[in-house]
Amino acid sequence: MRPLSAQRLTFLLCAAEVLAMTGFAAYTTLLPLLQRQWVLTNSEAGAISGFLFAGYMLAVPILSSLTDRVDARRIYMVACVIGALGATLFALFGQGFWSAAGAQFLIGVALGGTYMPGLKALTDHLEGAVQSRATAFYTASFGVGSTLSILVSGQIGAHMDWHWAFVFGAIGPLCAGLLVFFVVPRAPARTSPPPTTALLDFRPVLRHRPTVPYIIGYAIHNYELFGQRSWMVAFLVFCASQQSVNTPMLLSAATLAAMINILGPVFSVTGNELALRFGRRQVILFFMMLSGLIACGIGYTADWPWYWVVVLMMVHYGSMLGDSGALTAGAVANTPPHMRGAMMAVYSFIGFSTAFLAPLVFGFTLDVAGGNQQPMAWGLAFASIGILGVLAPIARWLRHNRIKKNI
């Protein structure tokens, strides 16, 4: 197979990731409809979202670690078949909590075998500044994929039977798997020593101190991001219900969510470029604090004119994604090549553990605070995912001052 240029390789793997994610946001986009049809509580609705991240969380330590030993393309292909199976099962048998949760779990397993293994397939061929930029574009493709999933699922849900959204979600992964397996070249011959530890022995990664701050930062980033993503459409539907008859929302909630979501890739790439220029840690902490502060207040704006709510959600979403590319590029750049698969396993496992918890905490807060028809409940629910972003830079500053005093 002929070698590909860095630009072509990056484009192919970004395109594959977008296709692999066609079923990723189908459930969260259709959540208001399915919650009504299946008579789910907010906690149950959030738990179904969480099962996708549970599948990811349990699969990624094994599948990402295997990329240090096995061609990442093979893992990617198998994961795509699992993703297509999960979406198909949702389309055919989704009729309540457990059937939906099981299908979401399989879609999450597939994400665990595509997202980070795809990044490994990309970074195996690149180094230096080219690798950092390629990583930023690849992580940005996650936002493009989720946008496509939201947009198409929303359109299908509005004009057809909702089951067809998951049929669409099954076709994309199969196309992605074929693209990666037959077009992306094998990893180059290893120039660093092979792994000497057992498959799931992550102690070397956790002892590698330059990488650990990025792992913690990614966990905080995912907690806020996936809590917001899981409930964004439902919140916009609630905002529409608060408008007077003279100020209707001009677009559907799903379309608005897709418009908000597409800003993510732009901010992810821009944030990484700022990090290369001004320093990764400063840029990461700035965006983390900004998004956390906005999250703590955005839920209280539900009765504002809808266009102001949408603009504020755009700013919030952009600030959340501002540190995404810088976090992942920093983790990759600070990890030796022979440990990158294991690092990505730890990075994703811890990061998506918080992604699993966030939709549950959000839904539980809604229930405890009075339900999803109460503006105060939405305010507290958003604050429950924003608070870590506010506290992280403060904790970092306090730790830095304590170290300075001890010197």
Fold and architecture overview:
With 407 residues, the chain is mainly alpha-helical. The protein has a single domain (7-187, 201-406), classed as Up-down Bundle (Growth Hormone, Chain: A). It is 79% helix and 0% strand. Helix 15 (340-368) packs across helix 16. The longest helix has 32 residues, at 128-159. It is globular, with a radius of gyration of 20 Å.
What's the number of domains?
1
Q: CATH superfamily assignment?
A: MFS general substrate transporter like domains
At the fold tier of CATH, the topology name is: Growth Hormone, Chain: A
CATH class wording: Mainly Alpha
Strand fraction: under 5%
Secondary structure layout plus pairing:
Blueprint: H1 6-20, H2 26-38, H3 42-66, H4 72-93, H5 97-123, H6 128-159, H7 163-183, H8 203-207, H9 212-241, H10 253-261, H11 263-278, H12 280-298, H13 306-321, H14 324-333, H15 340-368, H16 375-406
Helix pairs in contact: 1-5, 1-6, 1-7, 2-3, 2-6, 2-9, 3-5, 3-15, 4-5, 4-7, 5-6, 5-15, 6-7, 6-10, 6-11, 6-14, 9-10, 9-12, 9-13, 9-14, 9-15, 9-16, 10-13, 11-12, 11-13, 11-14, 12-13, 12-16, 15-16
